[in-house]
Design a protein that fits this description.
heterodimer; A: 562 residues; mainly alpha; Cytochrome C Oxidase, Chain A; 16 helices; globular; B: 45 residues; 2 helices; 0% strand; binds protoporphyrin IX containing FE; binds copper (II) ion
């Protein structure tokens, strides 16, 4: 085991390369699409909660599911992917640099994604793809919807390839050095994204496109759903890991502390890579065509992510406590008071961390095999991911924006914008506590998700629900105000904040930190284990699905579709 | 003398993380309570 022995000697201080104007234009382009999406998607969210309260009907015969498709696609897929790729690129540009050629290819990635996004958006707006962001077969959309999605994915791959190339070039120039922590994390996330999105690409190219074009008469429904969730769970980790990058490697700097442990951070990312993909069945626990044994195996693998999640929680608490004690905090929890509560770059992501406590606990409940039937397809699930993605991830992305945008635009985060940001974070917290809380409770009372207003023919149980839908309308309206404020802050930071220099915070290691073992750079090993786990979890059940599926389904354009 | 130095060094290596320990334990307790809450509901239905 030669590789386990070798240790990286150099403990170079954090690399921080300057970001040029053309570079920042690239990064800002991705981030801008994200904020435009936030506004449009937020408006749809507002419409949904108003309709569901029973006090409002959509004008001009617009269908509820068209609105919900826009909401899910633009917030779940577009906003997240663009922000993340822009953030990935800024981290890589800052830590390992980007060449002119790499930048050109990155622009190609951007434009492929934009063409795909526009295609998908136009199709949805014409009412030709009201199939929701999961596009479950046998609902059929217009082929342009699937082709557009495929282009977005291909564009994101090109972006990922550029990131890998950036790291490779850097490593050539720095033989024997460990890769910068943030570059390592970006690489983990893009590797995971690539392996995972192969599944949905196969479903779209081989199943959906020929079927929606009419070349294939039927589709294997179970196979398409299985391929979707092979992608769908890692998708949520693709959203979450950039937030973790900020928590591990940026927040310590903002609070005036040091990196807790470089090796622990890398290890947790490696574990997320392992256990994010071979687990998609936990979204299909009520699916009749999958053998319960394989559901159980994937449920077990799912629970493994508890390990890196708790490692992350421990590491964050420890960072806070060590930093607080260095600032003179006493007692068991005195360090808590030493945190920079008035700095929105800290406060917004911190609230995101708090939201992940009920978010994570809810996730464990969701994935608990038989117990999933308690909440399956209820509005509890919607409450769950509005905590995880729409609070934890979003508030962290907002927290990143407060320094990243001014840094890229050569401006300053003024005390006034900082204060607006704090108000924004509080509005979000209040709105989401009300909306998500009401969704959780209503879900436990049996109310379905993905449902417009209905009295369900006057069922008795239904009368219990409407109060919670009212609460969601109130919470959702507050949230929408939060979105308007955030978009205002975005415009302000991008175009109007005073010129100046804003720091790109990257945490440094302790002086006496232990060296990170060199075997962390063994990408073949990490990717090999990842693929092995996928093969273990999926080979037999997928063969089973292909061999024993009933006849495929013809397309359905009703009740929703095109 | 030498022993003291060693002790000092190792003390510096080990920061006081009592608050972290308690926090992580509370987090675990929260997860367990919510899980058993949902489990009770599941069983009762
Ligand atoms: C003003 C803020 C928001 C409001 C009022 C809102 C409201 C809602 C509601 C009521 C639903 C469920 C509707 C149903 O199942 O019938 C929903 C679904 C969803 N929301 Fe939001 N939301 C907001 C922000 C966000 C954000 C910021 C994200 C992600 C970053 C997001 C992602 C989603 C997704 C992925 C779905 C699932 C769509 C589906 O089931 O197909 N939402 N939202
Ligand atoms: Cu999942």
């Amino acid at each position: 085991m030669q590789l386990a022995k070798k240790e990286t000697v150099s403990k170079t201080s954090v690399q921080a390369l300057p970001i040029s104007k053309p570079e920042s234009r690239l990064y800002m382009s991705f981030i801008s699409v994200a904020f435009i999406s936030l506004l449009i998607g937020g408006l749809m969210g507002l419409l949904q909660v108003l309709v569901r309260s029973g006090t409002f009907t959509l004008p001009a015969g617009i269908d509820y599911y068209q609105v919900l498709t826009v909401h899910g696609v633009i917030l779940g897929l577009v906003l997240t992917t663009y922000f993340i790729i822009g953030f990935h690129f800024s981290l890589m540009g800052k830590t390992v640099g980007i060449s002119l050629k790499q930048r050109k290819v990155a622009w190609i990635a951007f434009w492929i994604m934009v063409i795909g996004t526009v295609m998908t958006a136009v199709t949805i707006l014409y009412g030709e793809a009201s199939v929701l962001y999961t596009f479950y077969a046998p609902l059929r959309a217009h082929p342009a919807f699937y082709i557009g999605l495929a282009l977005v994915i291909v564009g994101s791959w090109v972006a990922g390839f550029v990131n890998w190339h950036q790291l490779k070039v850097w490593k050539k120039a720095h033989p024997g050095e460990k890769s910068p922590l943030l570059a390592f994390m970006v690489t983990i996330n893009t590797v995971m994204w690539f392996i995972a999105s192969l599944g949905v690409a196969v479903a779209v190219l081989i199943q959906f496109i020929p079927w929606s074009l009419g070349y294939a008469e039927t589709i294997n429904v179970l196979l398409s759903r299985t391929l979707f969730w092979y992608f769908g769970h890692p998708l949520v980790y693709f959203w979450l890991l950039p937030a973790y990058m900020a928590w591990y490697a940026i927040i310590p700097k903002i609070i005036g502390g040091k990196l807790f442990s470089d090796s622990l951070a890398r290890m947790s990312f490696v574990l997320f890579l392992f256990f994010s993909i071979p687990v998609g069945f936990h979204h299909q626990l009520t699916e009749p065509g999958i053998d319960p044994t394989w559901k159980f195996i994937q449920v077990t693998l799912t629970m493994m992510v508890v390990i890196p999640s708790l490692m992350t929680a421990f590491s964050l608490f420890a960072t806070f406590e060590i930093t607080g004690r260095r600032k003179g905090a006493k007692g068991l929890f005195g360090w808590f008071k030493k945190l920079p509560w008035k700095d929105v770059r800290f406060l917004a992501p911190f609230i995101g961390m708090l939201a992940f406590i009920p978010g994570g606990a809810g996730g464990i409940i969701n994935a608990s095999h038989q117990m999933n039937s308690l909440i399956h397809n209820t509005i509890w699930v919607t409450g769950h991911f509005h905590l995880t993605v729409a609070t934890t991830v979003m508030l962290t992305f907002f927290g990143i924006s407060y320094w990243l945008i001014p840094h890229l635009r050569g401006r300053k985060l003024t005390p006034q914008i900082n204060r607006l940001g704090i108000i924004q974070a509080i509005i979000w917290t209040v709105g989401m506590t009300i909306m998500s809380g009401a969704m959780h409770i209503q879900g436990l009372l049996g109310a379905p998700r993905r449902s417009s207003y209905s009295e369900y023919g006057g069922g008795e149980q239904v009368t219990e629900w409407i109060g919670y839908q009212m609460a969601q309308a109130i919470g959702g309206t507050i949230l929408f105000i939060g979105i308007l404020l955030m978009v205002y802050i975005f415009i302000k930071l991008t175009f109007f904040a005073p010129k100046g220099v804003e720091e790109f915070p990257i945490a440094e290691e302790e002086e006496d930190a232990e060296a990170t073992p060199a075997w962390f750079e063994n990408w073949k090993l990490w990717i090999g284990i990842t693929i092995a786990l996928i093969l273990v979890a999926y080979t037999v059940p997928v063969i089973d699905i292909i061999q024993h599926s009933p006849t495929g389904s013809v397309p359905f354009d009703f009740p929703i579709g095109r | 003398m030498r022993k003291q130095e060693v002790k000092k060094a190792s003390e510096k290596d080990k920061p006081d993380l009592k608050g972290t320990f308690v926090s992580v334990m509370l987090l675990g307790v929260f997860i367990i309570i919510t899980w058993f809450g949902a489990f009770a509901l599941f069983i009762s239905r």
